[in-house]
Each structure stands twice: as structure tokens, then as C-alpha cells.
Design a protein that fits this description.
Blueprint (H helix, E strand, L loop, with lengths): L5 E6 L5 H16 L4 E6 L11 H9 L16 H4 L2 E4 L2 H10 L7 E4 L21 H26 L2
Parallel strand pairs: 1-2, 1-3, 3-4
Helix pairs in contact: 1-5
Length: 160
């Protein structure tokens, strides 16, 4: 792993869960004094260049974070060498990432909630077709995963 961990969060369209996970992880890393590089991307092309869903922006803003400047982008094969961790937000995303990953890519590919004891294999709530309150659920899931991943990366950095 590089000195500054690089983490990419991935969902389908890169307008809901992955920007929320990116924001939650960035905030958790900052609270813990962990220097990181973090981005998000999507597996589908539908929302390329668009900002996060207004409901995702609203939940982030309620939690003191502005994500409106983000623009959706696609995951590339190069991302598996640019990042230490490529993290899917659900099982479908994880399967897509594993299909896309080059055999010699260096990134560890996992689910976000795999980093939370007792939540391994679980998906971050997909709020897109749900009520606005589902965005709060997705935020809570993203924060739980982000906090656990930051703790892991901080422990790994301390062990170097």
C-alpha cells in the first residue's frame, strides 16, 4: 500500500451511494488525521458528468458536507492500479468490479460493509427508487463502512 492510501468507492451510477461513501470516508479520515486520496465512480454510463442526486446532496449537506461539485464518472481498468482499494457498495457492483479488474491490478476489491464487523456481505442501502429517508439510511451505512475502513487503514499505517 502506498504511504497515502487511495480509495475508490463504486456504485452503479455514481450519483447516490458512492458520492455519499466518498464524503463519509473523507470526513472520517479527516477526523482521524489520516491522509488519504479518495474518489468515487460508477459502473454505468447513464449519469456521466452529472452531479450527485439532489437527495444525496441534501443528506450530505445536513451532515455538514457539500458534494454538489462532484461529477459522475466511470470506473476504468486503470483505477485498479491507481487505487489501493476499489470498494463496491453492493454485491452487483462487486461482481462488476471483479469482472472489470485486470488480472494484475494491485487494488484490493471489497464491499464497503465487509469492513464492518458483523455486516460482511451486506449492501449499502440503495436509495435511488425509494423515499427520501432511504438516503439517510444510505448515509448511515456509508458512515459505518467509512469509519471501519479508516480505523483499519490507520492501524495499518501505525504498523509500518
Amino acid at each position: 500500500m502506498s504511504v497515502t492510501p487511495a480509495v475508490l468507492f463504486v456504485c452503479l451510477g455514481n450519483i447516490c451511494r458512492s458520492p455519499l461513501a466518498e464524503a463519509a470516508f473523507r470526513a472520517a479520515a479527516e477526523r482521524e488525521g489520516l491522509d488519504v486520496h479518495v474518489e468515487s465512480a460508477g459502473l454505468g454510463h447513464w449519469h456521466l458528468g452529472y452531479p450527485p442526486d439532489p437527495r444525496a446532496q441534501a443528506v450530505a449537506r445536513r451532515n455538514g458536507i457539500e458534494i454538489g461539485e462532484r461529477q459522475a464518472r466511470l470506473v476504468t481498468q486503470e483505477d485498479f492500479d491507481r487505487f489501493d482499494h476499489v470498494i463496491g457498495l453492493d454485491a452487483e457492483n462487486l461482481a462488476g468490479l471483479r469482472r472489470l479488474a485486470p488480472p494484475d491490478g494491485r487494488a484490493e476489491v471489497s464491499l464497503l460493509l465487509d469492513h464492518v464487523p458483523g455486516r460482511e456481505g451486506q449492501s449499502v442501502t440503495d436509495p435511488y427508487y425509494e423515499e427520501d429517508s432511504a438516503f439517510d439510511d444510505a448515509w448511515r451505512d456509508a458512515c459505518a463502512g467509512a469509519d471501519a475502513l479508516v480505523a483499519r487503514l490507520k492501524a495499518e499505517a501505525a504498523g509500518r
